Each structure stands twice: as structure tokens, then as C-alpha cells.
């Protein structure tokens, strides 16, 4: 049973446009959500996170939105750049267990020049 | 800053052989964990540790052993390698106050033939 779902395996956008990556979760105990970015042959790197007590967190070109009632979060990248091309993983942790992350399967983002 | 260091980067094993994947971190993080990444599967937690001397199983622990004798090191042992253990392995570390933001090593690509 997949607790964190990223239903789009891939996404292609034009440089300068907005990229929207989506993530759904099923476990109501999750209270912290993270996005990781991964380039080929490298480890995942932390991008941005959001606590369940918030509905939005912004960091430069990256914004994460959380809709708790729908158990849905999304990552917005504006404007998208070719260097953003990577696999993006959504991850979640439960209160008191933030040493364990549950990951989605990832979305491959391709930003075309 | 070294961060999380994994060795080796690549390894080929024969079925039945044993080996140890090394992981070291220099951030004085209490939490360390091992994940495996398979195509289309995202990252899955194998084992984790919340401090020296304390380890526990994650989602896919079978065929692997861990120990944590120091804060810095968290080796992963494959007892008798099987083709199903062909994967990319990532070690990660995080701090209790870090809201689960994990820092990952560059990964070990393991092939079992």
C-alpha cells in the first residue's frame, strides 16, 4: 500500500513557464512533508518542506502548497529553468518519527530551452 | 564539507557473496538510515538508527544487517547477496531538531550476478 503517491512519472515544460508537481498521501499521521531533487548518479538533495500546520511555504522560485483535507501537496517552480531538470521526490514523515521518511516514486521533470 | 560519504560507489557481487556498504557522516547527526532505490519504486527504507547502539528495521529489511557503534558510522551488511538486491543504495543522516530533513550520500550502485 503506497502511502505517498506521485501519479505523474514525468512532466515536460518550457523554460520560463511554471512547473507543477503533485503528490498525494494516505497516512493521516504524516505531519511533515518534504521535496527532494535528484540528478542522475547523485544522491537526493533537500529542496523545500512544509509542516502540516501551514498551507504554503515559499523559497525563491519554489513554493509548496499543502491541502490537508484533500491529503494533497504540490510543488510549484516559477520560472522553470533547464537546470531544474531532475527527478523530484515527495516525502513525508509522521510526528515523533521524523527519522523515517516515506517517499513517492518520483516525477521526472524536463525543462526544455 | 564532506557531509555523508558512501563507499564504494560501484560494486559487482556474485550471488551468495557477502559485503559491507560503508557510510560515514561528519555532521554529528543522531539519526542515520539506509534506503534502496529501484526503477519505478522511489526510495524505500531498509534500516535506520536513532543513535549509537540503537537500530531498527524499515520497510524492506530482509537480507540486510546494520550496526551503529559510533555516531559517525552506519554500515550496511549484505549477508548472502541475491539478484533481487541489485539496486542503488543511499545512506542518509538527519538531526532530531531538523524536522526530518535528511542529507544523503551519493549512493552505491550494486549489481548482483
Please render the helix and strand layout as text:
The complex is a heterodimer of chains A (113) and B (113).
Chain A: E1 4-5, E2 10-14, E3 19-25, E4 30-38, E5 45-51, E6 56-59, E7 62-67, E8 72-77, E9 86-94, E10 102-103, E11 107-112
Parallel strand pairs in A: 2-11
Antiparallel strand pairs in A: 1-3, 3-8, 4-5, 4-9, 6-7, 7-8, 9-10, 9-11
Chain B: E1 4-7, E2 10-13, E3 19-25, E4 31-38, E5 42-51, E6 54-57, E7 64-66, E8 76-78, E9 87-94, E10 103-104, E11 108-112
Parallel strand pairs in B: 2-11
Antiparallel strand pairs in B: 1-3, 3-8, 4-5, 4-9, 5-6, 7-8, 9-10, 9-11
Question: Please, could you describe this protein's structure?
Answer:
The complex is a heterodimer of chains A (113) and B (113). Chain A is mainly β. In chain A, 0% of the residues lie in helices and 56% in strands. Chain A has strands at 4-5, 10-14, 19-25, 30-38, 45-51, 56-59, 62-67, 72-77, 86-94, 102-103, 107-112. In chain A, strands 2, 4, 5, 9, 10 and 11 form a six-stranded mixed beta sheet that branches. A five-stranded antiparallel beta sheet of chain A has the order 1-3-8-7-6, with no helix packed on it. By secondary structure, chain B is mostly beta strands. In chain B, the strands form two sheets. In chain B, strands 2, 4, 5, 6, 9, 10 and 11 form a seven-stranded mixed beta sheet that branches. A four-stranded antiparallel beta sheet of chain B has the order 1-3-8-7, with no helix packed on it. In chain B, β5 and β6 form a beta hairpin. The radius of gyration of chain B is 13 Å and the shape is globular. Chain B starts with a strand and ends with a strand. The model of chain B has no long low-confidence stretch (mean pLDDT 94). The A-B interface holds A 4, 6, 9, 32, 34, 36, 41-46, 49, 51, 89, 91, 93, 98-106 and B 4, 31, 33, 35, 40-45, 48, 50, 58, 90, 92, 94, 96, 98-107.
Amino acid at each position: 500500500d503506497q502511502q505517498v503517491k506521485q501519479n505523474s512519472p514525468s512532466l515536460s515544460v518550457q523554460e520560463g513557464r511554471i512547473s507543477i508537481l503533485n503528490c498525494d498521501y494516505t497516512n493521516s499521521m504524516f505531519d511533515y512533508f518534504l521535496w527532494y531533487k535528484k540528478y542522475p548518479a547523485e544522491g537526493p538533495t533537500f529542496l523545500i518542506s512544509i509542516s502540516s500546520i501551514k498551507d504554503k511555504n515559499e523559497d525563491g522560485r519554489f513554493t509548496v502548497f499543502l491541502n490537508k483535507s484533500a491529503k494533497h501537496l504540490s510543488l510549484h517552480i516559477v520560472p522553470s529553468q533547464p537546470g531544474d531538470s531532475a527527478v523530484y521526490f515527495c516525502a513525508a514523515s509522521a510526528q515523533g518519527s521524523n527519522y523515517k521518511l516515506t517517499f513517492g516514486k518520483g516525477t521526472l521533470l524536463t525543462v526544455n530551452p | 564539507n564532506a557531509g555523508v560519504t558512501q563507499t564504494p560507489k560501484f560494486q559487482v557481487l556474485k550471488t551468495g557473496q557477502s559485503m559491507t556498504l560503508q557510510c560515514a557522516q561528519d555532521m554529528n547527526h543522531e539519526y542515520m538510515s539506509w534506503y534502496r532505490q529501484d526503477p519505478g519504486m522511489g526510495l524505500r527504507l531498509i534500516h535506520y538508527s536513532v543513535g549509537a547502539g540503537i537500530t531498527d528495521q524499515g520497510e524492506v529489511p530482509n537480507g540486510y544487517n546494520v550496526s551503529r557503534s559510533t555516531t559517525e558510522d552506519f554500515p550496511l551488511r549484505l549477508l548472502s547477496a541475491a539478484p533481487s538486491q541489485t539496486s542503488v543504495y543511499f545512506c542518509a543522516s538527519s538531526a532530531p531538531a531538523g524536522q526530518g530533513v535528511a542529507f544523503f550520500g551519493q549512493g552505491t550502485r550494486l549489481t548482483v550476478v
